[in-house]
Amino acid sequence: MNEHSNIVPLRQPDEIDDPLTNILRSGARQLLAQAVEMEAEAFLAAMKGLKLPDGRDRLVRHGHGPVRTIQTGIGAVEVARVKIRDRAVTSDGERIRFTSAILPLWARRTKSLDALLPVLYLRGISTGDFQEALAALLGKDAPNLSPGVVSRLTTEWQLEYERWQKRDLSARRYVYVWADGVFLQARMEDHSECMLVLIGATPEGKKELIGFQVGVRESKQSWHELLVEAKTRGLKIAPEIAVGDGALGFWKALDEVFPATRHQRCWVHKTANILNKVAVSVQASMKKDLREVYLASNRASAEVAIDVFAEKYGAKYDKAVECLTKDRDAMLAFYEFPAEHWDHLRTTNPIESVFATVRHRTVRTKGSLSSTTAKLMVFKLLCAASKTWRRLKGTNQLPKVSAGVRFENGIEVIQVPENHAA
Fold first, then answer.
1. 112 CB contacts (<8 Å, ≥6 apart)?
2. Whole-number Å distance between alpha carbons of 375 and 188
3. DSSP label at 80?
4. CA separation for the pair 370, 186 (Å, rounded)
5. What does the angle CA 49 – CA 51 – CA 55 come to, to the nearest 5 degrees?
6. Is the pLDDT of residue 224 over 80?
7. Residue 183 neighbours by CB under 8 Å, 6+ apart
8. pLDDT digits over 378-408, tens only?
9. pLDDT in tens, 266-290
10. Which residues contact 401 (CB under 8 A, 6 or more apart)?
């Protein structure tokens, strides 16, 4: 007998009525179940040739494991792992085991959620607030992120960082490198530690993270250690050019470790330094004139633009003019390389863009993590960002620089040896 009631349940204040997300989760659950089934079927098909002495298949399906909840970017999704049984035992007692690449044995959340934690921290969220932040994103069933869980993740990141630090670079060549030291207002101890970051571009145009470590300010010794470490692990061929700001420590260390590498000063940093030496009322006009220099179509035009700048502002803003002219050669070095690469070589943007929104962390999170944990979170952030770095245009050009080809104003020029017969 059905009983009718006129009592209508009221929605709780913390509940969100979101039918679209519910539909997405339902669809994700079905797609995940299908993918797991297809993966198991593909494994069985590959092992179809394995038979028992009586002709039966050696590997067979053996039901499903218990249903478990996987935390994803759209919330909790339930799924059951397919089980496969090996009906034969080899002489050494080994069995063939099926391990799902989609659904690892002990996985409780997607890797993308673990990658989200460094971003949350560096954007100002304390570790104690991780749970609350994820609950707002994923619902009340968001994964538990107690201090113990964060500690275990940190241990995994430390092992990953150590493996990355020991990787062999002997088969790598980087034609360009970008260097910068990044200070964060996270708990990085009291003696001005900063993150030293070194990025390189391969002849194929791909940008990669070469080196990363915590240094004392941007001292020559700290940069020297980072460059020597890369060289010790096999980076023998000097980059064609290095891009960095005005930190003298890096340039001194570079000249010792890779003396043949040319210098290119970052125009973003240089522009800021120049504008800081003039009144606010002049900055807009001066910034426009500086753009005429680094956006010139060739080096000759850039040289003329510098002379015009010096004549225009020299009488009243001599310090600003001196700031530009004293580094003239280092500011215009990018013109000696392919024009397709000028946008990349003018600035340290690959590094700056990663830290643009996390350079100033809020005071409320200061002291929430140790220096080591903060370093590992920055490392994870860089690894995630490296997948989005823009590739160079006009690839496979630079290796020819050392083989009889040079560039003038971005145009390839073949060098003919002096003893070459006419």
1. 72, 73
2. 8
3. -
4. 9
5. 120
6. yes
7. 192, 194, 195, 359
8. 788 788 778 888 888 765 555 444 444 555 5
9. 999 999 999 999 999 999 999 999 9
10. 240, 407
